[in-house]
Q: What sequence folds into this?
């Protein structure tokens, strides 16, 4: 079974440029998450989707960050314009959510992340 | 505001030297917990879900336990391949992860 796929793995841009990250979750996973991880820190939730609906985007800096999940499958996270402080790893995760079956432990499956460097 | 606190921040072990990592919530009690392992340059990898106080789960050399206030991840007779950052998070709300404990196991 394919895992969560993210692209690009690495991106280097100048400040004030736009950047977009793409995520393809595990097939059948209705819940999709975008996290930000700074060096030496744990992941911080940016936005959570249930199917196509953003059910928690309270920590998404909406002045420059946007996200969408069309058709409830793939998702894109965009930053425009990027700032120096946006340099981090952007992680995507998906899950069945709770109650998804007897084997469902509610766990999140993470992609390998997209590392952004803003110069 | 609740915060997830993990300790210690870093742990250096000799191969075979058992130890424990801690995860706690600063305000309210724990009502379940995820444990994850993260290798450098990779996304976190699921280890355990603990649902209620008193629950224990094991996987190879790892054993996770949960009380009402905190959780422990015990590493028994670790091997170098157990070197990683171990993260915890409550399975609800913001799914806020702790900063992690970086474990290095030397031969």
A:
């Amino acid at each position: 079974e394919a895992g969560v796929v993210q692209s690009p793995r690495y991106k280097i841009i100048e400040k004030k440029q736009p950047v977009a990250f793409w995520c393809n979750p595990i097939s059948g996973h209705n819940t999709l998450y975008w996290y930000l991880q700074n060096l030496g820190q744990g992941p911080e939730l940016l936005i959570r989707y249930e199917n196509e609906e953003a059910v928690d985007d309270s920590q998404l800096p909406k002045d420059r960050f946007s996200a969408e999940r069309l058709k409830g499958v793939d998702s894109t996270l965009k930053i425009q314009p990027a700032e120096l402080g946006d340099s981090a790893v952007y992680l995507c995760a998906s899950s069945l959510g709770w109650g998804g079956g007897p084997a469902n432990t509610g766990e999140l499956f993470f992609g390998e992340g997209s590392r952004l460097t803003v110069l | 505001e609740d915060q997830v606190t993990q300790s210690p921040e870093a742990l250096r072990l000799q191969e075979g030297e058992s130890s424990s990592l801690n995860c706690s919530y600063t305000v309210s009690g724990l009502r379940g917990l995820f444990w994850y392992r993260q290798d450098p340059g990779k996304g976190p990898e699921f280890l355990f879900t603990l649902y209620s106080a008193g629950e224990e789960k094991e996987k190879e050399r790892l054993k996770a336990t949960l009380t009402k206030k905190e959780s422990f991840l015990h590493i028994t007779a670790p091997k170098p391949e157990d070197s990683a950052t171990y993260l915890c998070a409550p399975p609800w709300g913001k799914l806020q992860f702790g900063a992690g404990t970086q474990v290095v196991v030397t031969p």
